[in-house]
Amino acid sequence: MDMHVRTARVALVGNPNSGKTALFNALTGAHQKVANYAGVTVERKEGHIRTADGRTMSVLDLPGTYSLRARSPDEEVTRDAVLGKLAGEPTPDVLVAVADATNLRLVLRLVLELKAVGRPMVLALNMYDIAQRQGLRIDLEKLRAELGVPIVTTVATRKRGIDELIAAIDAAAGGLSATAENAWVAPDAEALRGKALEAERIMKACVRPPERPDTLTGRIDSLLLHPVAGLVILLTLLFVMFQAVFTWATPLMDGIEGALGMLGAWVATVMPDGIWQSLIVDGLISGVGSVLVFLPQILILFLFIILLEDFGYMARAAFLMDRIMGGAGLHGRAFIPLLSSFACAIPGVMAARVIDSKRDRLTTIMVAPLMTCSARIPVYTLIIAAFIPNEQVWGFASLQGLVMFGLYAAGILSALVVSFVIRKVFWRGAVEPFMMELPAYKTPDFKSVLFNLWLRARIFLERAGRIILPLMIIVWALSTFPYPPEGATQPAIDYSFAGMMGHALEPIFAPIGFNWQMVIALIPGMAAREVAVAALGTVYAVADPESATSLLGATLAAQWSLATGLAFLAWYVFAPQCVATLGVVKRELNSWKWMWVMVVYMFGLAYLAAFVTYRVAVALGAG
Amino acid sequence: MSDTLKLSQARKGARGVIVRVGDHRHHGQEHAAELERRLLELGFVEGARIELLHEGLFGRDPIALKVDDMRVALRRHEAASLTVRLDTAAI
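Output (structure tokens, whole complex):
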């Protein structure tokens, strides 16, 4: 077959932390497509490069791995893509092994393994500038001869060596290097040992140890991994992060809300009243807005996460938290996803991909929605302002603030308990190993941080949008149809399907102190938690509840007992009142079963918590 | 040999050489073979130089190690599969 007729396909393979993604970005620029591989939830990143004589090649950025012997869904994709066994993915024409030039030993072993696959290969020695700065000498000629593959040195963040790499890939794709039959089989321990010793021999022969080794990483580690100081620094960092997420984002969020409100009002003036106006204003604009409004918080959170990741701190955070979270049956790496879930469970659930083990990943995803996401804040604020007196306790703390803190604590505590129970009930005894590389610290590259931020924001919006839009329309339809009869006296939602469901479900919710108005509000509240606030405004016929929260609060305080208010708060700590999260969970776990397990256990906990709260409060005279 | 021990028993500052990867009697059969391969893939191979750099706060677990020229974090539970010979000076 003539290679020049069709587009040559290139796949990037390398260890984690080798700068593979930075190299991919340098090769392809902004021309990349992020999607999922068919049937699995592993991110598929593809881009295009142009050779010197103007032909294009497609490049696939495969998940980082130490071996083709896959241990996680990510690594399975790498293996299957390299071997050409992945459904819908043709076998790559050229493999590019990406290596951190300062950390060659493990990648040399991987290269030896990749050679068995029989595809033409190019080795890119990335971060070559750091190697040179350290005085690390690599005998490139000898290494080329030992490995039998062409070698290019690159500095992805400075775009150095990129043209040379493209030329080398092009030459390899040109069919000069022979393609052999795939001879790769999953190596056993003896084969791994043999390859490791071979890699060690090549190391000794071709690489002279650095004259000025990186001592900075060691010095930073003695502070950041210090058993006490390290934890204090981690907690301080979290505190700063939370402050940033909740205070910096507020003006931006207000701006987005205002802009969408104006857009809605404008559409209402130019479109005739009726079903289409209602669909666009109440369904689409307010529905999409309820997600879009969290974008500033998510961007700030991602900015911190990307910076810490690029700096090399995230592996340290996992190290520090492993034992603490391990007590509850969680993996150290679950720390990042759970942290993200405080802004929104959707990026949290997606971030659980960093966890190798299926079980640990499942546990993490199952408890992520228990973290108090920012969509709960409007609900908490409304109810707390309505029912909790604004008093000082112990001379310094505000009672309202304490209740808010208690709700956060209840979320965290229940997440720990639930993951403990999952571990005990579903897989007794099986402990996944915790072993991870602690990469050398690096100064984050400004441009690549911004690029990644933009990329992640885009992914979040695309995914959330694709799931949320149809759901919003369903919820809107439920709360709109059928129309109220002529001369109706109650608010329109009362006559809709949501209203009917509210009345029908009322007996179930009566034991936990909910009246039918609340039950009705729960139904549109399934779209997103904070929508319940607007829905309460609708059922109690408070005009414009968003701007008149205090008015709504006063209405609620007059209509509900304190016990009911507290039960509603308890309900919202647990209830899976967010179809978008459930949709993402279903996608990420590729399982309806586990999504339903989540729905059932969270509603169960919500009901139980609200029941206990209501009954105790009534017994104490707050009914 | 008196100067070899399981890596899980080593303390901060210990330096030495890995003499055996294996001995997973504390793990299940199938699990043991998998663990051995994972350790090998992360650079824990006979002859590799080891230094215990840091210990966690609770139960001195997990541990941060220098393995040849890279850094790796590991729980003591997995470190029990590695036998090391400590440099005499460091005992």
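The interface with chain B takes residues 66-67, 69, 71, 103, 105-106, 109, 187-189, 192-193, 196-197, 200, 209, 213, 217-218, 221-222, 225-228, 231, 315, 318-320, 322-324, 326, 332, 431, 433-440 of chain A (CB under 8 Å).
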